[in-house]
Design brief:
Elements lengths: L2 H16 L2 E6 L6 H12 L3 H14 L1 E7 L1 H13 L3 E4 L1
Antiparallel strand pairs: 1-2, 1-3
Helix pairs in contact: 2-3, 2-4
Protein name: Clp protease ClpS
Pfam families: ClpS (PF02617)
Organism: Cochleicola gelatinilyticus
Length: about 90
């Protein structure tokens, strides 16, 4: 294995590990579907269809992963969800 291939492999492994973080949205009895959908569109850049599907999953399953990626990108998005009164955390 050449040095170049080994470096590329290390970068790919590091990117894979960095992207393993996820924002999990939890169900509550307070927020409406419309509020959750609009917040997901704004905070997580979901399409309306994605946001609606996530809100339905959260409603019936109790939680749903709504965004994955590097921690530094997820923290501000999770804070937007929390500021909007939703229950979410980064795992």
């Amino acid at each position: 294995m050449s040095t170049k291939e080994k470096e590329l492999e290390e970068v790919l492994v590091e990117e894979s590990l960095n992207n393993h973080n996820e924002i999990v949205l939890f169900n509550d009895e307070v927020n409406t579907f419309d509020h959750v959908i609009n917040t997901l569109i704004y905070a997580c850049e979901h399409t309306p269809e994605q946001a609606e599907q996530c809100s339905i999953i959260v409603h019936y399953k109790g939680k749903c992963t709504v965004k994955t990626g590097p921690l530094n990108e997820l923290e501000p998005r999770c804070n937007m969800l929390l500021d909007a009164g939703l229950s979410a955390e980064i795992q």
